[in-house]
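ESCALATION

Customer reports they have been waiting on this structure for their group meeting. Please prioritize. Original submission:
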Amino acid sequence: MRCFPFLALALAFLLSGCTTVSGPDQRIAQNPAWYSELKQEDQLLIRQGRIREGMGKNAVFLAWGNPDSVTTGTDRGKPVETWTYLTYQPQFVSGFGMGVPAYYGMGYYGYGPGVFQDVIYTQEPAAMVQFENSRVVAWQARR
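Update from on-call: job pushed to the front of the queue and completed.
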């Protein structure tokens, strides 16, 4: 019986992690006024996680969420804002090394040859949206 509170807390923590994924439906639920102002065709696109030229920033946010970076500049003499969305790609790495003896508390550790394998994740652009006067004028998304 003593471990029940600990198990209940651990279970609650694990289950809470299952609901943290954000998608168009969650963003629509949090911003119903933005969604209701859109044309029916745009509402359908947003629910599918898609965008089109001419959409406003709020519509792109509802479809794709917050960008990972925002940059400003000019294109053909007109001010533009670009939203970039990133993805993480796994990179498999391996190597060979030679350790030297080291003392860690209870004894020596870490000597001799060794081989390692690991996975690291690198950020890569997944999508970019360019706005002119707060409207989408161009976009790209990775397939």
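Sent to customer with the following note: The domain at 21-97+111-141 is CATH 3.30.1450 (Beta-lactamase Inhibitory Protein; Chain:B, domain 1).
Escalation resolved.
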